[in-house]
Amino acid sequence: MRYLVAEAGLEHAIEVDSAGTAGYHSGEPPDARARAAGRRRGIQIGGRARRVEPRDFETFDYVLAMDTSNFEDLLAMAPAALQRKVSLLRDFDPASPRSSSVPDPYYGGDDGFDEVLDQCVAACAGLLTQIRREHALP
Fold first, then answer.
1. Residues 14/5, Cβ–Cβ less than 8 Å
2. Domains of the chain from N-terminus onward
3. Cα dihedral sign for 110, 6, 68, 130?
4. Where are the beta strands (DSSP E) in 1-138?
5. Which of 38, 80, 122, 125 minimizes the number of CB atoms within 10 Å of its CB?
6. Model confidence over 44-88: pLDDT tens digits?
7. Packing angle of the helix pair 110-134, 32-40 (nearest 10 deg)
8. What residues form DSSP beta bridges with 63?
9. pLDDT of residue 121
10. Is residue 133 within 8 Å of 119, Cβ to Cβ?
11. pLDDT > 70: percent of the chain
12. Helices and strands (DSSP H and E) totals, the chain
């Protein structure tokens, strides 16, 4: 998403962050295979892992889950009035079936990271279109 936002010149208007529902990898960089898949497309995948915090539901307009398990976890963490902010990422890809999960490539081969990146870019492009429309951004 950061790549698409930067490509659109909207870094000043859109804040992007990433967090998980568990703290297993807190402080660690993204998986080397994910970074390599990004590099092959000219996308820098960086940052450090962190756990979702209660204030994230107030800070961000969208809180996105990669899969249905994390979607349910996020709904359970979110205050009732802010649960509307929680969505599955792939629901923003018009070519993706509704309620589709992004598969976890961690235990597979490198090609799984390429597939996941393709899915995420498609979904993030749809999300960016929606954000632009909702907030009257160029």
1. yes
2. 2-134 (3.40.50.2300)
3. negative
4. 63-65, 86-88
5. 80
6. 999 999 999 999 999 999 999 999 999 999 999 999 999 999 999
7. 70
8. 86
9. 98
10. no
11. 100
12. 5, 2
Q: Region of 60 please: left (phi>0), alpha (psi -120 to 50) or beta.
A: beta
> Rounded CA gap, 131 and 62, in Å?
10
Token pair of 47 as six digits: 């940052």
Tokens of 93: 């890809």
Amino acid identity, residue 59? T
Model confidence pLDDT, tens digit, residues 84-128: 999 999 999 999 999 999 999 999 988 999 999 999 999 999 999
How many other CB atoms are found less than 10 A from the CB of residue 46?
Answer: 10
In this structure, what token pair is assigned to residue 74? 């996020």
Residue position matching structure tokens 């902010």: 85
